[in-house]
Structures are given as C-alpha cells and as structure tokens.
C-alpha cells in the first residue's frame, strides 16, 4: 500500500504481441470455475509480504478454511514489490507460475489485455460483496470496457489531507474543514498566523503533483473516465471537459494562494519537507503520517500533532474524489489448478477474512469499510475517502510514462500561469494518442 503508482513497465515482447491481437473487451483466458476437488493436491499462491507483516492471521485462517472445504493444501510464497513485474512476466509466459497471485492495481491492465488471467466474470457473483467492491479497485480488475472481470479487489490505500493540528489550532482553526470553502478559510488563517516563517506553506501542493490536481478535476466531473474513457474501439479524452477544467482551476487557486512548492516539482519529497516544520498540510497517502513522524526520516515530535481528514468537497459532507491505490488478486491462465486457485481467492476475500483484514488495511468493499474506521480513530479519513467516489488511471496497458509526464507538464504549466484549458488539451492529445496505440 505504501507504493506509489508508477508508469506501467515496458511490456515483454510476447505480451505486446498478444495484447495487440486482443479485442477491446479483453482477451483473458478460459472462463473460471470454482473447484472443491482438491484431495491430495497442493496449490501455490503468491502474496506480497505486506500480508506476512500486517495480517498473517488472515492468511492462516483462509488457508485452514480452504483445506477444510477442498482437501487441498496451500503453499504461500511471499513476494516483494522490487522487480516483481519482471518475475511475474517470466512466470506467466513460462507457465511455471502460481495458481493464484497478488499484483498492484496499476499493473493489472497489461496482463488482462495479454490474456494472462482466467476470466472470472461467470463466477464473480459468488464472491462475497462483489456488488459493493471499491470503485477503483473493481475497475482495475476489469477489461477496458468494463464488461469482464479478471482480477478481484484485495485491499486499498487512499490519499487524504494530512495537517498539523497544532498549527491549525494556534491559528484559531479548531474544527476540521468540511468543504473546499471552509478549507480555504482555514488555510488563510494558518497562512496569516505564520507569515513570519520563511518559505511557509499552509498547504504544500507543488505544481506537478498531478494526483492532487486530477482529484480536484474529478470532483465536479465525476469519477467515471476521469482522464479518458473508452468509446467503442477508441479512447477519448476528458481533460478538456468544462467541468474538469473548472475543478482544476480550484486546485490552481489553492496552490497559488497557499503553496510555495513551485511549478517544477512534485510530491516526492513532501513528507521530509513537512517534517522540517514549515508546512501545515499536504495531500498524501494515509501512511505518510508515519513517514512525517518517522525517527529516521522525519520528526517524531510531530507524531501527536498530525491529523487527517478526507479532502473536503464542494458541498458539506462531500469529499473530493481520491486516487485509490491497492492490490488485486488473479488466477493465471496457465495455472495448473485454476479452479482451486479461484476458490482460494473466493475464500481469502470472503466477508469473514476481509472483516479481519479491515483491522489492518482498507478492505475491498464499501460495506466493510466501517470496520476499518472503527479499528483505529486514525483510519477515519482514509476510510471516508475510500467510501466516497474514487478515481483511477485509464485502464489500459498502453498507459505509459509519457502520459504521466504529460500530466506533470500540463499542471506545472498551469501553476506557472498557463491557460488551464490549453495546457490540458496538450496533455489530452498525448494521452489519447498513446492509449489508441
């Protein structure tokens, strides 16, 4: 969950060939079945060591229930994110991979398009809470047109407003803002109270932090196809939609008035900068609270001074849509035991296991997020963000590093005084060209 979205890695030659020949609705493998005929068998499952460190009891409970129901054993092989894509490419191409696996939700599209995963559409309804899966996680496991499901949502992380409660209190802001207008009013007070602090940012929001900028654009626009959407066989852009441009102007007003982050940098160093004491608020993943107060990289004295809220929306009680990152689970098309692999995923993501996981991370369905929020007061903000509208990058294997750069350049130019509609049109042209191959 603490990984940042990266541009999709270069696709292996065989995967490219497969993707180019696939249909717009995805070319995944055989239709899935759920098997309980596992006597004398053992399946292999790849999970990230996040679970080993965070919720091993959930994994063990799922293994036990699976064996009781199927008679098969489970060999969990723990993985790390470093070089995982390379390992996954090799395993999926060779057919020597696991029977079920975890992958980041930003990694899923290229494998779905390449036909690397079993088609779970026919059994989706047999997965608990599949009609309530978190929006962005569900979308990341689907074909580009949303008609088929190849990966199951696992758990998530969301971006929120992280702020120095002591600085807000000292400026006379004793209640967390509930709307963008209230946020502006609060930041105005915090800025005035710290006018003598060199380089002070009431809200540090550098120009190239495109996650934040797109979130504001997604607010009035909605969450379906925030950056681009599939229109038949072609992708069309939404960055120039008047509603999106309107939201971006709100973001630009905030960064101009309250941030000294500049126009040529992004959010990569914001945790370390906040720890130095001259930033009152940032927009970041919930786990960044720990990073700011980390004894090695931040300032532990800030631990009890930091607070979080879901980024306020335009109306009271609403939130600005958050980018939702996280993990999915899938069954490789070349699995030796696809039916058993699918059954393990069904059990591992059932209500019982997800409720237990919710003590540690955002579960995969909106109806279970309340448990996550109740587990720790610090979870409320990220839970609220996940329950609200969330957005995701265009679900295509052709999303590339050039597209992320185009967004950074566009928002940096807008922050520097450029015309929002014109700069977003430049980015849109690049993105649509890339998505359409």
From TrEMBL:
Protein name: ABC transporter substrate-binding protein
Molecular functions (GO terms): maltose binding
Protein's organism: Kitasatospora cheerisanensis KCTC 2395
Annotated PANTHER family: MALTOSE-BINDING PERIPLASMIC PROTEIN (PTHR30061), MALTOSE_MALTODEXTRIN-BINDING PERIPLASMIC PROTEIN (PTHR30061:SF50)
PROSITE patterns: PROKAR_LIPOPROTEIN (PS51257)
UniProt similarity note: Belongs to the bacterial solute-binding protein 1 family.
Residues annotated as signal peptide: 1-19
The UniProt record lists the keyword Heme: no
One Pfam family from the record: SBP_bac_1
UniProt KW keywords: Signal, Transport
Domain of life: Bacteria
GO cellular component term of the entry, any: ATP-binding cassette (ABC) transporter complex, substrate-binding subunit-containing
One GO biological process term: maltodextrin transmembrane transport
Keyword Signal tagged: yes
């Amino acid at each position: 969950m603490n990984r940042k979205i990266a541009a999709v890695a270069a696709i292996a030659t065989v995967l490219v060939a497969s993707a180019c020949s696939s249909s717009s609705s995805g070319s995944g493998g055989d239709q899935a079945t759920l098997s309980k005929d596992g006597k004398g068998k053992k399946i292999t499952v790849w999970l990230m060591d996040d679970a080993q460190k965070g919720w091993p009891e959930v994994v063990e409970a799922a293994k036990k229930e699976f064996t009781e129901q199927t008679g098969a054993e489970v060999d969990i092989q723990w993985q790390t994110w470093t070089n995982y894509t390379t390992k996954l490419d090799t395993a999926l191409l060779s057919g020597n991979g696991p029977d079920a696996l975890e992958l980041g939700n930003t990694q899923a599209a290229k494998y779905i398009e390449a036909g690397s995963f079993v088609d779970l559409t026919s059994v989706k309804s047999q997965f608990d809470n599949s009609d309530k899966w978190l929006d962005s996680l569900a979308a990341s496991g689907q074909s580009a047109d949303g008609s088929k499901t190849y990966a199951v949502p696992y758990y998530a992380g969301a971006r929120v407003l992280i702020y120095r409660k002591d600085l807000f209190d000292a400026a006379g802001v004793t209640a967390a803002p509930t709307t963008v207008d209230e946020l502006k009013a609060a930041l105005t007070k915090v800025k005035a109270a710290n006018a003598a602090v060199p380089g002070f940012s009431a809200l540090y929001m550098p120009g190239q932090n495109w996650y934040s900028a797109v979130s504001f654009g997604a607010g009035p626009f909605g969450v379906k196809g925030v950056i681009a959407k599939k229109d038949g066989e072609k992708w069309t852009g939404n960055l120039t939609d008047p509603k999106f441009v309107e939201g971006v102007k709100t973001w630009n007003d905030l960064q101009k008035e309250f941030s000294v982050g500049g126009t040529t940098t992004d959010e990569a160093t914001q945790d370390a900068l906040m720890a130095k004491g001259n930033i009152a608020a940032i927009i970041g993943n919930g786990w960044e609270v720990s990073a700011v107060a980390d004894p090695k990289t931040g300032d532990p004295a800030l631990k009890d001074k930091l607070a979080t809220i879901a980024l306020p929306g335009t109306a009271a009680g609403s939130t600005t849509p958050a980018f939702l990152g996280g993990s999915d689970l899938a069954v490789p098309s070349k699995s030796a035991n696809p039916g058993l692999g699918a059954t393990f995923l069904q059990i591992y993501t059932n209500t019982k296991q997800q409720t237990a996981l919710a003590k540690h991370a955002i579960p995969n369905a909106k109806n279970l997020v309340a448990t996550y929020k109740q587990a720790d007061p610090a979870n409320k903000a990220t839970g609220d963000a996940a329950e609200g509208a969330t957005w995701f990058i265009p679900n295509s294997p052709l999303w590339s590093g050039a597209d992320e750069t185009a967004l950074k350049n566009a928002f940096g130019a807008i922050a520097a005084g450029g015309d929002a509609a014109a700069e977003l049109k430049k980015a849109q042209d690049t993105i649509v060209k890339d998505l359409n191959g």
